[in-house]
Design a protein that fits this description.
single chain, 272 residues, mainly alpha, MetI-like fold, 12 helices, 74% helix
């Protein structure tokens, strides 16, 4: 009897205690449990409900098949290429500006650029069209520009959180100001940059659909989402959203794995 109560406590009580450590097997069971809850709720709302407001899983699978034959892989590749190009440009620009922000000459400029994240996209597109033209260059410019605002803000916040002891240590080792910038800020915080990239990647995933709609001729699944919404094809919207979600989740996992594999010291310390 005591053994049974211990097993019940192990499986049902411990996961409900804050900061409690659980086994990998328990985490797997909990994940399966919540996936089952989500799928059951989906079935309830789409199949067994009197008011069917969302498509059923079979309808979504059928939409996947139709989209595949209509060129889903090509359109998805166009969208992913747009995202990767924009992220690459935004990251390079942001790192240059943010790493130079400790310079008194550059800091006001970096702070001003970071505040531009409050500026709406509507209205700026007209001037960007005049500057870079339409098509894919304008899409990449818009997405990379707005992503730079968030990257610069996050990287500058990361630099501001570096403890003064790190600079004191570099100073006692005879480092000059520029060597301190390189060793403490740039080289010593690469893992933080990967984490910032992982966190801000979701913003790109949210924005690329809106950017693709600005230039319909460039293609991409954002156009398909807009057309599906216009004609009420909810099953296609669900299918495309699931595809984007799964790919974004995969990238999030890969970046997290790269961070922990390349920088083992960045793993969180379990204090409890």
């Amino acid at each position: 009897m005591n053994t049974l109560l211990a097993k019940v406590k192990w499986w049902f009580v411990k996961p409900t205690i804050p900061f409690e450590k659980i086994s990998k097997q328990q985490r797997t069971v909990i994940m399966i449990f919540w996936i089952g809850i989500i799928f059951a709720s989906w079935m309830k709302a789409s199949v067994y409900s009197d008011v069917k407001i969302i498509p059923s899983p079979l309808m979504v699978l059928s939409a996947f098949r139709d989209l595949y034959y209509e060129g889903l892989i090509k359109q998805f590749a166009i969208s992913i290429t747009l995202c990767f190009q924009s992220i690459g440009y935004a990251l390079v620009i942001s790192l240059i500006i943010a790493y130079l922000s400790p310079l008194p000459l550059i800091k006001p400029l970096a702070q001003a650029i970071s505040k531009l994240r409050y500026v709406p996209m509507i209205g700026i597109t007209y001037y960007l069209t005049l500057a870079v033209g339409g098509g894919r260059p304008m899409q990449v410019t818009i997405l990379s520009m707005f992503m730079s605002f968030y990257f610069i803000t996050s990287i500058m916040a990361m630099i501001g959180e570096i403890p003064i002891e790190a600079y004191d240590l570099a100073r006692t080792m005879g480092c000059s100001r520029w060597e301190m910038l390189y060793k403490v800020v740039i080289k010593g915080r690469i893992d933080c940059v990967i984490e910032i990239l992982r966190q801000n990647l979701a913003i790109t995933w949210m924005m690329f659909v809106s950017v693709e709609i600005l230039v319909i001729a460039a293609g991409g699944i954002g156009i398909w989402m807009k057309n599906s919404e216009r004609f009420g094809n909810q099953e296609r919207i669900f299918a495309l959203q699931i595809l984007v979600f799964l790919f974004g989740t995969l990238l999030d996992y890969l970046l997290s794995w790269v961070k922990t594999a390349a920088f083992r010291f960045s793993r969180p310390v379990k204090s409890l």
